[in-house]
Amino acid sequence: MILNRGVGYGLCGLMDIVGMVTLHNVFSYWGKKNNDLQMSLNAEYLKTHFVDTNLLGQKSGEGYYTYPAPAYSASNFLAIPDISQVKEIAKLAIFQE
């Protein structure tokens, strides 16, 4: 979205549109077909964190984003945050399992 300001959503939004079940099935198929461990791990991640928890994307109303008003539809979605928000953004960026 940053490189092409004309697009209405990015990769995660597209994944929500396609749906997590479809993505899981595609990744699982190609992981097995090509003996691709990383693709199989990606499929398992989608299953565990999205499919099994009913975060199916637009179909269920939530995936990477919450619908019907996903964050990427906000006019200020790509706005540069104020420097005072750095600590809060850093907290959000730390991946915690």
TrEMBL record:
Where does the UniProt annotation place the signal sequence? none
Task: Give the source lineage, highest ranks first.
Answer: Bacteria, Pseudomonadati, Pseudomonadota, Gammaproteobacteria, Vibrionales
Q: Name one GO biological process term.
A: fatty acid metabolic process
Organism this protein belongs to? Vibrio breoganii
- Could you tell me which residue ranges the 3-hydroxyacyl-CoA dehydrogenase C-terminal domain spans? 6-67
What Pfam families does its record include? 3HCDH
Q: So where does this one cross the membrane?
A: 6-30
Q: Coiled-coil intervals in this record? A: none
For this entry, the protein name equals 3-hydroxyacyl-CoA dehydrogenase C-terminal domain-containing protein
* The keyword Cytoplasm is annotated on this UniProt entry: no
GO MF annotations, alphabetized:
oxidoreductase activity, acting on the CH-OH group of donors, NAD or NADP as acceptor
List the Gene3D superfamilies: N-(1-d-carboxylethyl)-l-norvaline Dehydrogenase, domain 2
Which superkingdom is the protein from? Bacteria
Entry annotated with the keyword Transmembrane helix? yes
Q: Which InterPro entries match?
A: 3HC_DH_C, 6-PGluconate_DH-like_C_sf, 6PGD_dom2
Q: Which keywords are on file for this protein?
A: Membrane, Oxidoreductase, Transmembrane, Transmembrane helix
